[in-house]
Amino acid sequence: MGVSKRHLHTMSVNQLADMAKVLSHPARISILNYVGDCDGCLCKDISETIKLSQPTTSQHLQIIKKAGLLKSKFEGKSQYYRINIEKLNKLKGLFQEFFETTEAKCG
Amino acid sequence: MGVSKRHLHTMSVNQLADMAKVLSHPARISILNYVGDCDGCLCKDISETIKLSQPTTSQHLQIIKKAGLLKSKFEGKSQYYRINIEKLNKLKGLFQEFFETTEAKCG
DNA sequence: ATTTATTATCGTGATATTGCAATATAGATA
DNA sequence: TATCTATATTGCAATATCACGATAATAAAT
Q1: Which of A5, A10, A87, B74 could be a cystine partner for A68, CB 3.0 to 4.6 Å?
Q2: Number of domains in chain A
Q3: What residues make up the domain containing B56?
Q4: Count of CB atoms within 10 A of residue B47's CB?
Q5: Is residue A57 pLDDT above 70, yes or no?
Q6: Percent of chain B scored above 70 by pLDDT?
Q7: pTM score of the predicted model
Q8: B30 in contact with A, Cβ within 8 Å
Q9: Residue A76's CATH number
Q10: How far, in Å, CA of B98 to CA of A37, rounded?
Q11: Which helix (H) or strand (E) element contains residue A75?
Q12: Are the CB atoms for A92 and B99 separated by under 8 Å?
C-alpha cells in the first residue's frame, strides 16, 4: 500500500505501533528470549542458535537495538548484547496501559 | 528478504509475533481505541474518524478481526464492530508473560 | 424496480520487509 | 605483515504491506 500515513495518528499511537513492529518478527522474539537467557551474548552465537545467517541476525539485532531494547558493548572483536531492562519495563508499561484502557472502555 | 522463516521458531514465538504484527500499524491501534470507545461501531464511522478510506479501513478491520480481537454482527446493512474482550485479555496475558519471563531472566 | 447506504473485495502502484552472498571493518594472533 | 575471527554494511531478489479507486454485494427506503 505505499507508505503508512503516520501523521494521521497521535504520537503515542505511533510509538506503540513502532514497538509492536519490533516484536512482530519471530526472529526478534527468539533473539530477545536467547539474549535474556545468556545475558551478554554474541551475534555469532545468536545466529547459530536461531539458525539465521550472521548478516540477517545482525540486522535484526540492529532493529531491536535501535528501538532501545538491547544494549551492547565491544570487548576486543566481540560485541556483547544484553537486554535493556529499563526500556523493556517501559515497554511492558506501554502495552499494559493499552490493554487496560481498552479493556476499561468495554467493561 | 523474501519470506519469513517461521519454521525456525516455536509455535508460541510465532503466535506472539503474529499478534504483535496486528498491533504494529498505527491505524489498527487507533481503530481499537475508537471501537473501545463507541462499543459497537461502523466501518464508515471508523473510516471518518481515523481519516483513512473506507476500503483501507475495512482491510484493517479484517486483519484485526481475523486475529480475533474484534467481533462483528450485521444489523440491516450495517456491520457493528466491537472488541472481543476475552481475546484481548488472552493477548494481554501473552505479552505480560513475555515481558515477565524476559525480565526474570535478566534479574 | 430503482435508488441509496454500507461494507467487502479486486486490482494495482508504491513502499517496506526479509534473507543472504559478498564485501568491508576492526581487533587479535601468529 | 599476513591471517584469523567477529561483526556490520551493501546490494540484490523475493515477498509482504499499505492505500485507494473501482466494483460487487446486500439490504433498506422510496
Answers
A1: A87
A2: 1
A3: 11-106
A4: 19
A5: yes
A6: 98
A7: 0.95
A8: yes
A9: 1.10.10.10
A10: 13
A11: strand A70-75
A12: yes
